[in-house]
Specification:
Elements lengths: L4 E5 L3 H13 L3 E5 L2 H8 L6 E5 L7 H9 L6 E5 L4 H9 L4 E4 L4 H21 L3 E4 L2 E4 L4 E4 L2 E3 L3 H12 L5 E2 H8 L8 H16 L6 E4 L3 E4 L4
Parallel strand pairs: 1-2, 1-3, 3-4, 4-5
Antiparallel strand pairs: 6-7, 7-8, 8-9, 10-12, 11-12
Helix pairs in contact: 1-5, 6-7, 6-8
Length: about 230
C-alpha cells in the first residue's frame, strides 16, 4: 500500500528513473512526466499528494507550471533546479513552492525533504482548527488535551501527537514510519516496536472509556474509525 502519490516532472529521463526508484523504495506511488505540458495533461485527469517539478524544462518550465497549478490547487510542490542563485530560490518559494533543491543532490536528501513536507502538511491539517472531533473524542490541539465526552485522557506528548494524526484522517491507514514522523518532530529514528508500544498505551486508555476505535491493519499500520 502506497503512503502518498507523487508526480515527478523532469525532462531528464535518467533523473526521473533515479528519483522514481528512490521514492518507490520508500513506499510512495510515482508517476513521471517528461515536461510541463505532459504534466498538465496528467493533472487534468488525476490528483497527487505532492509534485516534484524541474525548473528548467522546454515548452513549459517549472515556475510557469507552478503558477498555473496555484490558480486551482495547494498541492505541495518541491522544485528541482541546476540554478543555485538565491533569486531563483526566492522566486520559487514566492510562487508557492514548498521547497527548492539544487542539482546535483542525493536521493537521500530528496526523500528527507519530501517527508519533511508531508510532516508539515499533516501538522497544518490538524492545527487548522484548534478543536478536532471524531465521534465521542474531542482534541484541543494547542492545549494538548483529549476528552472522551466529559472525561479527560491522560496522554503523554508523544501519544497525543500520534493520536492527533490518526484522528485528523479517520479511516486512513497510517504506516508506522508515518506515525513515528508525527510523534517525533525532531526526526529521530524510531523502530516499529516503539510505535507499537505507544499505540498499545493509547488503545488501553481509550478502552478505559469504552472507545474501541483504534484498529490495527496487519502488515500496514493503524487507523482510527468513527467512535460512535
Amino acid at each position: 500500500m502506497v503512503s502518498a502519490e507523487i508526480l515527478v516532472v523532469d525532462d531528464d529521463p535518467h533523473l526521473r528513473e533515479v528519483v522514481g526508484y528512490s521514492l518507490r523504495r520508500e513506499g510512495f506511488g510515482v508517476v513521471e512526466a517528461g515536461d510541463g505540458e505532459e504534466a498538465t495533461r496528467i493533472l487534468a485527469q488525476r490528483t497527487f499528494d505532492l509534485l516534484v517539478l524541474d525548473v528548467c524544462m522546454p515548452h513549459l518550465d517549472g515556475f510557469e507550471l507552478c503558477r498555473r497549478i496555484r490558480g486551482e490547487s495547494q498541492v505541495p510542490i518541491l522544485f528541482l533546479s541546476s540554478r543555485a542563485d538565491e533569486l531563483d530560490r526566492v522566486l520559487g518559494l514566492e510562487l508557492g513552492g514548498d521547497d527548492y533543491l539544487v542539482k546535483p543532490f542525493s536521493t537521500r536528501e530528496l526523500v528527507s525533504r519530501i517527508k519533511a513536507i508531508f510532516r508539515r502538511v499533516r501538522a497544518d491539517a490538524v492545527v487548522r482548527d484548534d478543536t478536532v472531533r471524531l465521534g465521542r473524542l474531542t482534541l484541543s490541539v494547542h492545549a494538548h488535551r483529549v476528552w472522551v465526552e466529559a472525561n479527560e485522557l491522560e496522554l503523554t506528548a508523544t501519544e497525543f501527537r500520534m493520536l492527533a494524526v490518526l484522528v485528523s484522517r479517520p479511516e486512513r491507514v497510517f504506516t508506522r514510519p508515518e506515525l513515528a514522523d508525527a510523534a517525533y518532530p525532531d526526526a529521530r529514528q524510531v523502530c516499529d516496536r516503539t510505535v507499537d508500544s505507544h499505540v498499545r498505551r493509547i488503545r488501553a486508555k481509550l478502552r478505559q472509556h469504552e472507545v474501541d476505535a483504534l484498529e490495527t491493519v496487519h502488515g500496514v499500520g493503524y487507523r482510527m474509525r468513527g467512535t460512535g
